[in-house]
Amino acid sequence: MLRTYFASLLRPASLLIFFFLCLLAAAVYFFGGSLSVAGVTPLQESQVRIAVIIGIFVLFFLLTFLRHWLARRANAKLINSMLANDELVAMGPDRSADEVELIRERFEAALKKLRDNPLDGNKKRNFLFELPWYIIIGPPGTGKTTILRNSGLEFPLAEDGQDAIQGIGGTRNCDWWISNDAVLIDTAGRYTTQDVNQGIDSAAWNGFLELLLKFRRRRPVNGVVLAISIADVAMTSESERARQADILRQRLRELHRAFGMRLPVYVMFTKCDLVAGFDEYFDPLKEKDREQVWGVTFPYDEKQVTVGPAFESGFIDLVGRLEKQLPDLMAAERNNSRRCRIYGFPHEFGSLAPVLRSFLSDVFRVSRYEAQPLLRGVYFTSGTQEGTPFDRLLGAMGRSFSIAPAQQLPLSGQGKAFFIKDMLQNIMFAEQNLVGKNTRLERRLAALYAGGVAGIAALVLGLSLYWLAGLNHADQTADQVEQLAQTLRTEQQSADQNRSLINILPTLNAAKALRDDVIDQENWLTVTPISIESRSTLLPAAQKTYESYLTGYLLPAITSRLAAQIQLVSTAPDSNSSLLRDQLETYLMLTTGENFNAGKVQDALKSQNEAAFILNPENRNNMQAHMDALLALLPVRTAANIPIVDAARSRIQRVPQATDIYNRMVRDAAQRFRLAPIDMARTVGSGALYIDTAVGGGRSIIPGFYTKDGFYNFFLARLPEYIRSSTGSDWVMGSGGMADSTYKTLANQIVKMYTDDYIKTWREGVAYIRLVEIGSLGRAQIVLQELSSPDSPLTNVLGVLRTNTQLPLPGSSADQAASAAAGAAPPAASGAVSGLVDSASEAAQKAAVQTAFGDAPWPGLAIEDAFRPLNTLVDPTNGQAALDKVQQLFGDLYGNVSGVVTAPDPGKAAFDFVKGRAQSPRNDSFTSLRSEAAIKPEPVRSLVLSIVNRTWELLNRTTYVYINDRWQDEVVPVCNDIMAGRYPFVPDAKEDVSLQDFTDLLGPAGVIDKFFKDFMEPFVVVRGRQFTEVQTHGSGLGISNEALSQLSRAQTIRDAFFSDGGTSPQAKFTVIPTFLDPKALRSTFKIDDDQIVYRHGPERAKDFTWPSQFEGSTAQVTITLLDNKRKTLEESGTWAIFRVLSASGLSSVIGRDRFEFSIELESALATYRLTAGSVVNPFNLGLYSSFRCPPSL
Q1: Can you give the residue ranges of the Type VI secretion system component TssM1 helical domain (predicted)?
Q2: Which of 195, 505, 1026, 1060 to pair with 950, CA 20 to 30 A apart?
Q3: The pLDDT of residue 227
């Protein structure tokens, strides 16, 4: 393997690559030291460059060895595949078992030798798969094997006694002739003719082609040799030649179809020694001359012309050259017989032209739908001289003259090869790359190759451009640094250092961009001159320039802004001393650098930046980057504005010290220590309750300062520290310590302010808890279920309140009980305030703390007293908590509401429930909850009453909807049908309402009376004729006043007509004539057969009853004048008397049961007095006309 590898290194391509690598190694050694990558020169040391050069050559040898190894493996894979293929080792049926075994062994031994020992004769290719492959086809007996054996090629297996590998049954199938230059596959003649067992031979032939395609996908073969015996063409009939041409054309077509490419075809006419005179003509040739080419080679043309004319032209030239050499040959030959044959050979050979032309034209004839084979040439050969020559000319002449031709003597079989070797080596093997390509495979491989080449080219181009850009960028950066530095120096000399943050931002951005631009050079691959590195010299200068702007521009701008803010706050009437102190502290840190606190300064810088760029996020982000860079440079001592500092200190001292300390504690608790607040809105939830923050004073967030944690762990624990810092040495105020006598006063004042704010905060947190909007009984059911559950939001709120407002003295019994309930204990102490502080303070603070608090009351007592009524509700000390009973009652109410909501008819269920409570008031959940609410503190009282009242309102509303639906379904349609267009409900109606309809509507147990008793009686209070809705818990059904008024009218009508308890309407009345006009003789009032006649005499009364016994009732008033003329007012029908009274203008006289009506006819007037039989006068006509059944209650 190594021998062949080193031999491959001597190839021209390998030597050329090696030469370029030597040039690269020289460039690395002499110029690599100036290579700079990211500011580093990795090849500066000579040892490194030598190592890189060695690495380059090692990589070259590794890659070439890998290529050689891959080629060797591919060769072995090909041969192993041939060995493993059953079809390649199949034998013919005519072989004996011993012969089969012998051939198999020789086949395997030969292939293994080719696998393990690559070829040596080919200087370009060492492996079998790299050689060109040719397939030789032709009819049986054409001498294909003889041609190859006598070709003069070098076959490496010949030294083992094998010219060819007989792997497929010898000549019965095919022989593999492996030379140093090519692989020639001698196929069996039956593959070509397929004239015995066509199906078997055709399948074997196609299978053989598939095997070739399997072994060599890109180029299964490099060419095709058509071996044809010239005697078979010259001495057979025309039909036999045509059949043979068709067979060969079919085989060529199958090759093209199987391989998918255009194959060069070489036509080899064998056994040319059988042409009479061939042996004598060419016998004088030396061995070298016998190796030359004798035939016609066509010029390469993709669009090849017709074969016949091209062949004929070349063939004539061959014959001409034969004739040209005749004189010399005949002069050299002494034997007359041989001279005759020499002389006749050109003519004999030339006589074959028409036959050969016709034969070749038939073989290479193609249609318009198939590609034309690439015929490269037609050649004439002879492998051995044996057999009997033929003489077509003498034969033809003899047949013409009936003369028997002379008998030709058989050839001796001397075994000389004529015109084979050069034809194979110099023409066919030389054109090995002329074969077409497997289009689909080559297209795919070409795409991969083109992609790889394009990628490499793009990479090289990109690296080159990147390198050049780096060089250009370095030069430009150096120029920019110099120009910008000069600009900044000029600007710094003339600039106002007290400019605002907005104005100095562009300058700061420019300085930072200069610095960043130099730093960015680390990302460029640049080559700098030897001993010059621009980035290493530019970066310090750029960084120094930027830092000078931070301390010279930005810091003064910030301190000036702070000084202005301090001055503004100091002069404000209601200045915030705590804010002023913070601003002054930050200002002094930035100017003097004393007691510098980076965290405080960072927060202050961020606040200044946000205030300056509140509407410009981009500028705010840029300025924040500058401020962060400035913070890394601080502290830096600068001049402070002393008058502003003194004024601020003077203003701070005016504020009570206790207030100042307390304000700082409030601010620090939220900003510095970030005590966790309590979200009351989250505690309350959103299902049943909510906090109404829209109302003034409503609070949903309890600051962490006012929680149990803030009370114990911050306020009490840190109060001594704040007092100490304020009464001791104060660097912000520039003052010394304060007398100890002020400690106690300060502590008491701060505790008072804290407890007051603590109580106020929690009162605001619970005072505005409201019931959510409840729009339906279903929603009320959900709310009641949540309020009655163990984790009720009301319980949670009161629990949080109790946890944060029940603040016992550590170590007391109350503290132990609370700690046991909570599962944790606050810090232990000795029973006084100072004890707690002792445990929370450092040892050095204890004396000051004791002095500050002394024996002051425990601060938690005031807070606990303020919320004791509410805390008692959830205090389980005495067994069941007071709120548990309220929750239980909520559960009972939830059961009542659920019964209504889940009933098949919720409206009827609500009606039954409300009706039951109205008919028999009892101590139910509603009453009990109202009673409990009365004794509970706010806001529990309001919340309980809210849910009770709202639930009752919803039950009433549901009941009203149910009753109203019944009214609209059962009463309104009947009422409209009876009253529509009928008298007396419509005064001018022509039709009367029947007495039965009247009774059905308004009589006892009638439609209206029955509905009222069934549905409305429990909800209406009747006082005389006044109907009023019943109000329970401040809520009624919501029946309209109009509906109540109409129901009252219905009862009045019923009392007027059915007062005696009858089932039919009846009205008794008395009529008394009281006046008759003197112009009249008499007046008559008549109802059916009953009448009263008045003739200016005394008043007489007449009793009447309505309705009368007659079906067609008539009522009339007649006035008879002095001339006996009669004028009559008459009405008929059931309601006739009511129509007469309506026409007469009935009016009341005295009381509700007496009426007077007058009749005037022809200017004669008669007046009557009507007295009803009851106080409820049925003749109150307005009662009927104003009665209606309202569409809804």
Answers
A1: 963-1061
A2: 1026
A3: 92
Phi, psi of 570 (to 5 degrees): -65, -35
Give the C-alpha separation, 556 to 496, whole Å: 10
User: Where is average pLDDT lowest: 361-370, 397-406, 990-999?
Assistant: 397-406
Would you tell me the crossing angle of helices 534-549 and 439-494 to the nearest 10 degrees? Answer: 50
Spatial distance between the Cα atoms of 983 and 980, rounded to a whole number of angstroms: 9
Give the percent of the chain with pLDDT over 70: 75
- Number of helices and strands in the chain (H, E): 47, 26
Distance CA 835, CA 717 (A): 11
Q: Which two tokens stand for residue 122?
A: 């080919």
For tokens 């490269």, what's the residue? Answer: 376
Q: Judging by beta carbons within 10 Å of its beta carbon (0-12, 13-18, 19+), is residue 1015 exposed, middle or buried?
A: buried
Give SS3 for 594: coil
Rg (CA), the chain: 65
Tell me the three state secondary structure of residue 1144.
Answer: helix
What does the angle CA 807 – CA 809 – CA 810 come to, to the nearest 5 degrees? 105
| pTM, entire model | 0.48
At residue 340, φ and ψ (nearest 5 deg) are -65, -40
CA dihedral 46, 49, 53, 59 (to 10 degrees): 140
Of 300, 259, 207, 253, give the one whose Cα is nearest residue 439. 259
Dump pLDDT digits (tens) for 649-682. Answer: 777 666 667 787 888 888 888 776 778 888 888 8
Please give the C-alpha separations between residue 281 and each of 150, 714, 1027, 1177, in angstroms, as whole numbers.
Answer: 20, 130, 154, 166
Alpha helices for 827-939 (secondary structure H): 833-840, 846-853, 859-866, 868-873, 882-901, 906-919, 925-934
> What pLDDT, on a 0 to 100 scale, did the predictor assign at position 319?
92
Closest CA relative to residue 773, chosen from 862, 838, 692:
692
φ, ψ of residue 1084 to 5 degrees: the values are -130, 125
CB 379 within 8 A of CB 266: yes
In this structure, which CATH number among 2.60.40, 2.40.50, 1.10.1660, 3.40.640 belongs to the domain 1067-1175?
2.60.40
Q: Residue written as tokens 């739908």?
A: 369
Q: Say whether 1067-1175 and 129-314+352-437 share the same fold.
A: no
CA distance linking residue 138 with residue 363, whole number of Å? 12
pLDDT tens digit sequence for 182-194: 888 888 777 788 7
Going by C-beta distance under 8 Å and a sequence separation of 6 or more, which residues neighbour residue 554?
A: 501, 504, 508, 626, 627, 630
Tell me the H-state helices in 593-656.
598-612, 617-633, 642-654
Q: For residue 528, what are its two tokens?
A: 């700098």
Please tell me which of 814-823, 841-850, 1104-1113 the model is most confident about, judged by mean pLDDT.
Answer: 1104-1113
**Distance (Å, whole) CA 1143 – CA 1140:** 5
Domain range list for the chain: 2-70, 129-314+352-437, 474-655, 658-887, 903-920+955-1057, 1067-1175
Question: Does pLDDT of 806 surpass 60?
Answer: yes
Whether domain 129-314+352-437 has CATH 3.40.50.300: the reply is yes
Instruction: Answer whether 143's CB lies under 8 Å from 226's CB.
Output: no
Q: Which of 1155, 1159, 1078, 1089 is nearest to 1117 (CA)?
A: 1159
> Mean pLDDT lowest for which of 289-303, 622-636, 924-938, 1146-1160?
1146-1160
Only one residue has tokens 């031709």, namely: 405
Cβ contact 1008:975 at 8 Å? yes
List C-alpha distances in Å: 1021 to 49, 1009, 1028, 1036, 1041. 117, 15, 5, 12, 13
User: Is 57 in contact with 21 (CB distance < 8 Å)?
Assistant: yes
Query: Tens digits of per-residue pLDDT, 774-796?
Result: 888 888 888 888 888 888 888 88
In the 8-state DSSP scheme, what is residue 841?
S
Q: Which is nearest to 153 in space by CA: 122, 124, 127?
A: 122
What SS3 class is residue 589? Answer: helix
